[in-house]
């Protein structure tokens, strides 16, 4: 369920992109990978065995270009991903692996709901981990020139796992983007954060829930997760608020938000922490306060709607109520959203790819234009805004 690029992994790949060629003949590309591997000190015979059966996978490219689910607004997306069965299963898994979650909380500071939500969304608690050949996926995406800086280093990380006996280039399978196991980790993440959670002497993220959960907890900690702190909290917002203050670009002490009349629907506001106000569907829809840990979610996945849904589901798994959907104005979808993005780009805004997805760049541009036009600047694009433009 991930959407790429992953910000945390990009930081690992900060070498010269120019040196990382892509495209051209696939067989020539593989030969170049093999040459680079041996230049890095890997044994030539081992490298030959590792790449012997690699093939380009067109289904990987099709999956990469088919991520339309992320065009859905938050309420629709959340209702699609969070079923009563998933919630009940998550609660049950929390009890079943209570000792593992206690260990994760003690050693890595990550609350159980956070990992349960990822476990649910990524593989339905391990039930479907993907059936793409992992090496084929990684090499195919490295050869494709859209994001070689992300995927090419993962090929060499997989080679390291192979040398350690933890990766089979023919039999290892996972998601279309090369992630492996119950919480879907890329090879570099496994090398750096893999944990033998069940004590059997090996890290098996496909078959051992304890290994997968412990590894996921360690990875989140390495990405900056702050122990003992919340990540997201649903709030009620007064109609008199200056809507231009909403969005992840603005942070204030949570106590300042409280002074503006924002009140939590569940629990107490974490007054000592910096926070942002999120209105995923504008001023008439649901509202949340996002704390520093919320930003760590974007190191796992960069889709705003996925991140918000995962963070909200983590709260639900720990006892929070169903969010108040409110009565948001109808948003834009498909070609309307693309038309809006083109208009924003024409005005000089960086909205990224014209893809019909309301990502961070589009939200920021929408909010700026709303303010410029004297409209409520809540970053929620509507037909009224499109018509004004």
From TrEMBL:
The UniProt keyword set, sorted, is: Signal
SUPFAM superfamilies linked to this entry: Lysozyme-like, PGBD-like
**What domain of life does the UniProt record list for this protein's source?**
Bacteria
**Family matches, as PROSITE patterns:** PROKAR_LIPOPROTEIN
Domain called Transglycosylase SLT: residue spans: 26-314
Task: Give the matching InterPro entries.
Answer: Lysozyme-like_dom_sf (IPR023346), MltB-like (IPR043426), MltB_2 (IPR011970), Peptidoglycan-bd-like (IPR002477), PGBD-like_sf (IPR036365), PGBDSf (IPR036366), SLT_2 (IPR031304)
Is Thylakoid included in the keywords of this UniProt record? Answer: no
Peptidoglycan binding-like domain location is 334-389
Q: Where does the secretion signal sit in this chain?
A: 1-19
Keyword field contains NADP: no
What this protein is called in its record is Lytic murein transglycosylase
């Amino acid at each position: 369920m991930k959407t790429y690029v992953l910000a945390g992994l990009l930081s690992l790949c900060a070498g010269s992109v120019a040196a990382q060629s892509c495209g051209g003949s696939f067989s020539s590309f593989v030969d170049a990978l093999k040459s680079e591997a041996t230049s890095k000190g890997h044994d030539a015979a081992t490298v030959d065995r590792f790449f012997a059966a690699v093939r380009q996978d067109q289904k990987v490219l099709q999956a990469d270009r088919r991520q339309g689910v992320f065009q859905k607004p938050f309420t629709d997306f959340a209702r699609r991903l969070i079923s009563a069965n998933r919630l009940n299963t998550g609660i049950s898994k929390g009890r079943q692996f209570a000792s593992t979650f206690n260990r994760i909380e003690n050693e890595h500071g990550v609350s159980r709901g956070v990992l349960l939500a990822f476990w649910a969304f990524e593989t339905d608690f391990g039930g479907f981990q993907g059936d793409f050949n992992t090496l084929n996926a990684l090499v195919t995406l490295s050869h494709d020139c859209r994001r070689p800086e992300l995927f090419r280093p993962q090929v060499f990380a997989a080679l390291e796992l192979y040398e350690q006996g933890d990766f089979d280039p023919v039999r290892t399978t996972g998601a279309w983007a090369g992630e492996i196991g119950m919480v879907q980790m890329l090879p570099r993440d496994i090398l750096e954060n893999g944990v033998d959670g069940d004590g059997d002497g090996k890290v098996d993220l496909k078959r051992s829930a304890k290994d997968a959960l412990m590894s996921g907890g360690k990875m989140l900690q390495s990405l900056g997760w702050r122990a003992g702190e919340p990540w997201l909290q649903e709030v009620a917002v007064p109609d008199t608020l200056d809507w231009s203050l909403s969005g992840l670009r603005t942070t204030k002490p949570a106590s300042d938000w409280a002074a503006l009349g924002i009140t939590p629907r569940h629990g107490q506001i974490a007054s000592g922490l910096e926070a942002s106000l999120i209105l995923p569907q504008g001023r008439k829809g649901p509202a949340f306060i996002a704390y520093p840990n919320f930003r760590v979610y974007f190191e796992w996945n960069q889709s705003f709607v996925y991140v918000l849904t995962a963070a909200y589901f983590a709260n639900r798994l720990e006892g929070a109520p169903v969010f108040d959907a409110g009565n948001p104005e109808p948003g834009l979808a498909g070609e309307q959203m693309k038309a809006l993005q083109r208009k924003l780009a024409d005005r000089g805004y960086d909205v990224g790819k014209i893809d019909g997805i309301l990502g961070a760049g589009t939200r920021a541009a929408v909010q700026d234009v709303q303010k410029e036009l004297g409209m409520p600047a809540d970053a929620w694009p509507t037909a009224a805004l499109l018509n004004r433009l």
